[in-house]
Model the fold of this input.
Amino acid sequence: MAIANILLVDDEIPFLETMTKRLTKRDFATATASGASEAIKLLEKNSDTEVVILDVKMPEMDGLSALKIIRQRFPLVEVIMLTGHATIESAIEGMKLGAFDYLMKPCDMEQLVSKVSEAATKRRRHKDKIVEAELKKITSSRI
Done:
């Protein structure tokens, strides 16, 4: 079983390929998208995605705009922003919009793995609480 289900979103294809290999070797299930619109379509099709690793600077739609959409439409999915073009302002904005964390490229692989694991754990806890609440609701309505 995979440690976590990840969606990598970046317009740099060689970066996606390298990260996919590195994360797969560490037992993460990875899917990729080369842009924000493609990522959103993949999230609509696959409810198993736990963590999105999202590039900030992309041509079609920037990462902060994509983050807003992801947080609105897929609130349980955790998003880690990853960029080579960070500014303090964009990092603050990303965190305000609900990013789990904000990392600089190139980032230390162990740091990324740790953040992805933390984000997946957080998502699972939230999902478990929702299931628990739904079960309580069902069982209390039968009494």
Q: What stands out?
A: The radius of gyration is 16 Å. The helical segments are 13-25, 36-45, 63-73, 88-96, 109-141.
